[in-house]
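User: I'm writing a short report section on ligand binding and want a predicted complex to refer to. Could you take this sequence and NAP and write out the structure as tokens? A short remark afterwards would be nice.
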Amino acid sequence: MAAKIIDGKAISAKMKEEMKREIAELRGIGIFPGLAVVLVGENPASVVYVRNKGKACHELGVHSEEHRLLANSSEEDLLRLIERLNKDDKINGILVQLPLPRHIDERKILEAISPDKDVDGFHPYNIGKLMIGEPAFAPCTPYGVIKMLEHSNIDITGKNAVIVGRSNIVGKPMAMLLLQKNATVTICHSKTNDLPAVCRGADILIAAIGKPRFVTADMVKDGAVVIDVGINRLPDGKLVGDVDYDAVAQKAGYITPVPGGVGPMTITMLLYNTIQSARRAAGKVKAVEV
Ligand code: NAP
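Assistant: Sure. The structure tokens for the complex follow:
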């Protein structure tokens, strides 16, 4: 039987409608969420991401600022800008678009962002909070996956969740979030022994590898929930995920497409985190709940 498609575009659109209403309410009580996006250099993919983030803010009525620095700007220039944004009351979220030019220490920059405005969830403080299960900003892509599962009424408690990929921005925080939702979690990587067998044990299989169509149907249990985080551009220009979609969709119970799956959720969760940050800054919530 063909899998049910988890439509990230539709879930994202629904969440944005809810957020529009929330923003209107917040405006009514004098709270105006604001996001600052910082771009260093002209990496073409980053320019597009930054533009899309600005557009999404505009669509929802979130105040947005784009700060562009030249590719040869110094680390000190960037640190000064972050310091200024940390102190700016109009700004509730700061996002520094990665990757940064080689001469800038990415870790140092991410650690300079105030944890209270770290809507990307990459600051060690928020990573640590996530690890010990306390309220924190969760990284947008894995947080978006959790929202997709919840919107699809997929029960996570007690399920075997297997994540392929252990990056700091997807695999590891994904594991923490699933653990918090009471899944039994396995994290796999390039050195995992007999990866297909481990994957076949998954009720929920998450692919975050960066290799086109890597997860094949023989790696998937009948009826499993398959979430494809991968975004890969083929030589012919086609965009595909890490999952061999056509074959796996014949076996899985649920599947996310690429494009139109996890991708649209990432920006949505960035806005979601920014709104929560504005609420917290105004004392309307004590902390950000995942
Ligand atoms: P990454 O930092 O390159 O990490 C890839 C992970 O996959 C690593 O942990 C690596 O293992 C593992 N891996 C590589 N080859 C493998 C193999 N043959 N078998 C098992 N594991 C293997 O990538 P990332 O930043 O997490 O991104 C993963 C994918 O998600 C990419 O396609 C990226 O474009 C996409 N992505 C999408 C969004 C979105 O908004 N939808 C956001 C972020 C990323 P080792 O650690 O052992 O090397």
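A remark for your report: The mean pLDDT is 96. Residues 129 and 136 are 6 Å apart (CA to CA).
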